[in-house]
Write a structure and sequence with these properties.
mainly alpha; two-stranded antiparallel sheet; single chain; 386 residues
Length: 386
Amino acid sequence: MILTHFLKGGIQSRSVLTMIGLLCVIAILIPIMNLVVPPASPFHVPDHLVPLFGKYLCFAILALALDLVWGYCGILSLGHGAFFALGGYAMGMYLMRQIGARGVYGNPELPDFMVFLNWQELPWYWYGFDQFWFAALMVMLVPGLLAFVFGWFAFRSRVTGVYLSIITQAMTYALLLAFFRNDMGFGGNNGLTDFKDILGFNIAAPETRAALFAASALTLALALLLISSMVSSKYGKILQAVRDAESRTRFLGYRPEKVKLIAFVVSAIVAGIAGALYVPQVGIINPGEFAPANSIEIVVWTAVGGRGTLIGPIIGAVLVNAGKSWFTGVLPEFWLFALGGLFIFVTLFMPKGIVGLAKKLSNFSRPNITTNKPQSSDGAIAKPAE
């Protein structure tokens, strides 16, 4: 019943508030079912499922970030995986600095991969990542700065449509090639892994994983509240006007490039936060996260759930990734074909996604109650005869 309410509600404020409330409940309930409920109970959540569910929530945050620019601004970004990965690398650098002398080579200052590659000193861009506050700042600043610079030039040049999508994908592919290089100082092909602690707590402990899951659920709730407030405000109306008729909006005196730039930067920051929460739960970050196929998957999640609805991308991200976990375990070699087929099916038969289909079915099944009253010749309702 709750899921049906979400699907029917779409972007209505009541639906958003209900989803936020559900996420807050989940943030409390899942850790309790994992840490407190006995393993013999059917309501117990095993340890291995907690980070898996947390990963789904991180993907939901990422899909919500894309929905802001695609669903409400008309910017089909095929490079949001880059912002996600940059946030993940910022968190990974902090986690690597926390290893200290417990690494394989016992170097208190340099990560193991730097010792293996004969680095003599820590690169300057690793300074400060031994502090959590600095890493948290970089999680937001680095993706936000990249989005600002990219958007500044792209939107001022009035690059739109498929051309903008192509250059966003070119951006993430360029970052993929750069981070694969060992001399970049980010672990090369292997990336960053073998994390030990986060904020002084054992990252593999069930209590820490439960806390990270709760943080992911609450962050998703806050992101939903923020983006919902944005699209419901006057700015959100202008944003949708730019999406539907950019030239008319410019004629009315607005600057579409500034409107789009704000949304693009906010979306990138939210995606970076999603990446930062993702890394400690999966235990690794490598250049594969920059792969263009990952950014395309984000588009599929958003389309399946229903872009421009806020609730839809969250549902789409969770359902598609849950299906991926099952499908890759049964027929792993056919997953990409299934994903492509799903996107084609949604595009042809469900252009508004699951949320749009639920609304259509709801309107179709709702009875049309009309009162057949006799009318006079001039159209006025006639009084019944006494």
